[in-house]
Amino acid sequence: MFGYQHWLGLFQIFTIISMSIIIAVYVVAWRRHPAHPVLLMGIVTTLIVWQDPIMNWAPYAVYNPQLWHWPEDWPLVSLSPTVEPFLVIGYIMFYLGPYFPAIWILRKIQARSRLDSFVWRHPLITLAAIILPVGMLIDAMLEMTLVRTGFYIYSQVIPFGSAFAGQTYQFPFIWETVMVTFVMIPAGVLLYRDDTGRTVAEKLAQRTRIFPRKPKLAMFVVMFALINLAYLGYGTGFAVIKWTRTATSVACPWPYPEAKVYDPQGFYERDGQPGPYSVGIWSTWMSAQPHGRPDVTPPAGGGRCGPAHG
Fold first, then answer.
1. What domain of life does the native source organism fall in (predicted)?
2. What whole-number distance in Å separates Cα of residue 225 and Cα of residue 217?
3. Which of 109, 131, 198, 260 is at 20 to 30 A from 290, Cα to Cα?
4. What is the pTM (predicted TM-score) of this model?
């Protein structure tokens, strides 16, 4: 993009620097405010990366093999279509980030509203409604930039609601920007403080009565459980798309010659993309294909992904 050839290295260095700054800020903030709810949520939105290989498998998110990545033969990591990059440790900036502008907007609206107004009577709904467009905007700007610069691709998308469908940099706009807020919204809502100064996460922890003598630990457990469930919901949404075989538009041409073409359902071969092909892991029952990848007859004319159209 823009004729610049070193986006991968730039983004990786940026993430390392950013995470180093965040860790330093965490150390200082933790000393001043031990186990603050925002700090705990930041840890939670970082720890959910254990699910990330699954969340790459479900939406056909294929990372550039040239990225610095975890060992490919690790059992969970191997679920990713190609590699699992180190940079997912920066998820705190992505999933927790929308909370800060959203809570600022909510406080501004509340300051100008009557106490019997909707924003005061239903602050959690209002906060969720604000995080939704904020999160969608942030996600669209970030992901479309990363996809356009070759950081990763969505190898298959639903044609409807996707940007640049059929291009290498296609992006499932409606599907991804909406479903990614499945994590952003609860992350923000759990941090909302009522007029008693307690967060939603704190109140839920008290209701569950887990670790009654360690309220901070109880709050962390509640956050961890709910955010992981939310992330699972995101993955389930894309898994349904995979199971129904509605993601028929492939990113063409395949941009990573050092990796086999990830084609678990045969759509790349159907469109004429030359192999060799990879089906990855979970390509049978988990993909609603008990007998594995279906047999495909390549198009006689080469197809839109054939060498003549590359």
1. Bacteria
2. 12
3. 260
4. 0.93
